[in-house]
Design brief:
With 113 residues, the protein is α+β, with helices and mostly antiparallel strands. Helix content is 72%, strand content 15%. The protein contains 5 helices and 3 strands, in the order H-H-E-H-H-E-E-H. A 3-stranded antiparallel sheet has the order 1-3-2. Helix 1 runs antiparallel to helix 4. It is elongated. The termini are far apart. 12% of the residues are buried.
């Protein structure tokens, strides 16, 4: 899972790719639609989609009537893995903050006597 998480975070580090993911949350899109929506050349969008595809965040589907046309959609598993990791991280912080709070309260009571 660590290697997949690394690929996910690396792919999402780019703001354009995060915006592409955001757009794909609504519905699948053809590569050309994405390039137009971002006012980007098709080759430039293709590079972003390749990174997203290699990271596993996006799946590609060819359209039957035209082998050159591809439709892109989000793949849920990497996002579930990211959410799970963030939940674990949040739990770690919560436990540390609870321990700090208990320590501070104990120290505060000891200083009052």
């Amino acid at each position: 899972m660590a290697a997949q998480l690394d690929r996910t975070l690396a792919a999402l580090a780019d703001p354009t790719r995060r915006r592409v993911v955001d757009r794909l949350r609504r519905r699948p899109h053809r590569a050309g639609e994405l390039a137009s929506a971002f006012d980007m050349s098709p080759p430039a969008m293709s590079r972003h989609l390749r990174v997203l595809r290699r990271s596993g965040l996006v799946e590609e589907e060819r359209v039957d009537d035209d082998a050159r046309v591809r439709v892109y959609r989000l793949s849920p598993k990497p996002f579930r893995d990211l959410a799970q990791w963030l939940t674990q991280l949040e739990e770690t912080w919560r436990l540390q903050l609870d321990a700090f709070k208990a320590h501070a309260e104990k120290a505060g009571k000891g200083g009052e006597s």
